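Appendix B. One record, verbatim.
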Amino acid sequence: MTSTDLPIFPGERDARCPFNPPAEYTRWREEEGLRRVTWNGHTVWAVSRYEDIKTAMSHPAISAEVLGVLQGGENHKGPDAPETFPRMDDPEHARLRRMLTKDFTVKRVNMMRPDIEAMAHEFIDAMVAKGRPGDLVQDYALPIPSLVISLLLGVPYSDHDFFQTITGKLMNMYTPPEERARASREFFGYMLELVALKEREPGDDLMSRIIRDHVQTGELRRETAAVNGTILLNAGHETTANMIALGTVALLENPDMAAVIRDADDPNVIANAVEELLRYLTIVHSLVARIAKEDVEIGGTLVRAGEGLIMNLPAGNWDPAFTTDPETLALDRPARGHLAFGYGVHQCIGQTLARAELQIALPTLLRRLPELRLAVPSEEIRFRNDMSIYGVHSLPVNW
């Protein structure tokens, strides 16, 4: 079988069931072994079972160092390329990650909660003031995490149009390679300029701290600080924005579930509901790639050294071996243990912040606008089948 005969990953979702993973993922889980697919122009193994994904993401023979092999990037080639912590293995990965984690601890995020709640109310006020219909993506879902990550990193929020446009090009699976490379260089250049600014005019933010504690001591290169800043800025607004928007669609389509969040006075109920939405929607459907450093058996398949793997997170989170009746949105199910943030040492560094934003944004929206509803038929919503992060391109709403 040639690569042109293989299924393309991620698969197409059924427009009638936009929250469901592609139907073929169920078959891949039920078949023996792994499934060969075409991803990012490469023939790789799709890992679709919950336990197989956990095994692959924690196995010492499976490496995260895929840049220049399975994933390109003009800034990540050659011996002088900056270090990119999500695409590194331990101990180097742990060393660099530790420099960043201070700003994403539970204590630090809890201190930010009142500010995040104030932002949510302000953006709702602005959306209502503009009048109906509103675009929940542009008016609410995107501004909250964009402003939060901008303040955290020390990025001027006035530049959000620039970095959101660049991110859109990088996340679009059909962006031509030369345009993607140009966008990557622009983003990297922008962050290099920010590093230089923070050296001259430090502030109370993550980039200033990284420069003071690690760049100026010679422990970290400016280029490494810049490239990891782009990763945090990109992921910090793109993922949460799409979870807020897609989560809202799922709740509006399931009014009983919306009522659970709107009426809950127990933070634990809301926290658990968010975990179930993360499991059910699994918006990171095309990004978690790995490569075998040596021959290794995963899920009954011998993966040869040098072969790539793509973690099929939506399939894993809908695996009946993980949870019963996985195709049902059940906000009271114990959903902890899902794979929406990955697994093992490479779990999303910003997951505590993302959880807080969702735990605040969704109930605030539903309580402030209890009559919130779609302004178009659900079949007219443009879902992000063309993007590496699933969600909606826009979401017209009335209230």
